Amino acid sequence: MVKKILITGVSGLVGGILIEHLLKNPNYDIYGIDKHIGLSILYQIENIQTSKEQQPILPSKEKFYICDITDRDKLLHIIVDNQINIIIHLAAVLEMETVDKINRVNCDAKNIKPLQSLKKITINDSPIPNRKDPLREAYSISKIYGEALARQYSLAPTNKVKFVSARLGTINTIDDMEYYSFNWAIKSIYCSYRDLCQFIDRVLENQSRLKNFQIYFVLSNNDYCWVDMDNGREDLNYMPQDGARWN
Fold first, then answer.
1. How many distinct structural domains can be found in the chain?
2. Is residue 247 part of a domain?
3. What is the pTM of this model?
4. Residue-level pLDDT at 107
5. Is residue 181 in some structural domain?
6. At what angle do helices 193-205 and 13-22 cross, to 10 degrees?
7. Which residue, 209, 198, 190, is CA-closest to 241?
């Protein structure tokens, strides 16, 4: 059976990586939504040169919708009309935005309860906290709130939705572990495009084994990686193929 997958924030960096990967699989019917069709703001933040003609990789025109995810009616119509089975939720406001805007998009949008049964993968690309520096930014706190909300939904007796929260490592516009060769803190949580796509494949291939709610760290096999990825290996057989080295 072909799985119908909706990716929110599809024109962003991670959205583009997943679209390019998943469109190659005939078992997936890919849909996407975003409020714009421009390249990810990360290209500007990282000072990556792009041409004016360069555009993100998107689904076909009939399967791409310009939609603000806080527009609940329109979003629900897209889900129901296309009989979406799985949502990969990537839409978010970055940490340089105002607290009000972060709350509206990152928190309020997660209050939308789909009218039909679906399996949902929530990709929360939040910064991984330092053990000595607890989460303080509104952006990071909004992501943790989203996870808590998903956990509460998953506990409801009538719940038929499965939530997977993937805490992604460092994913950059340049897929090269040597790009930050002198930044050891970032290298320890590096995640390659190939490992990101492998994780998504493992989740999609193991739908029947998923718990109602689970959090996974998604990183490459880096030297001195300090987060626990054991449950990803045990539950999904996620085995990172790349890794940043300290030599």
1. 1
2. no
3. 0.78
4. 46
5. no
6. 60
7. 198
Range of the domain at 129: 3-174+192-211
Q: pLDDT tens for residues 115-156?
A: 444 555 555 554 555 444 555 567 677 788 888 999 999 999
Mean pLDDT of the chain: 79
Closest to 172 (Cα-Cα) out of 37, 10, 22, 14: 14
CATH code, domain carrying 155: 3.40.50.720
Instruction: Assess if residue 244 is contained within a domain.
Output: no
Strand 64-66: give its sheet, edge to edge. Answer: 64-66, 28-34, 3-8, 86-89, 119-124, 163-168, 213-218
Q: Nearest-5° angle of CA 17, CA 18, CA 19?
A: 95
pLDDT value of residue 160: 87
- The helix (run of H) or strand (run of E) holding residue 214 is strand 213-218
User: How many CA atoms lie within 13 Å of 202's alpha carbon, on the beta-carbon side?
Assistant: 20
Return the percentage of the chain with pLDDT > 70, whole number: 70
- Let me know if residue 119 belongs to a domain: yes
Mapping DSSP to helix (H, G, I), strand (E, B) and coil, where does residue 53 land?
A: coil
Q: Exposure of 103 by Cβ count < 10 A (0-12 exposed, 13-18 middle, 19+ buried)?
A: middle
The H or E element spanning position 81 is: helix 72-81
The answer on pLDDT for 48 being more than 80 is no
What is the rounded radius of gyration, in angstroms, for the C-alpha atoms of the chain? 17
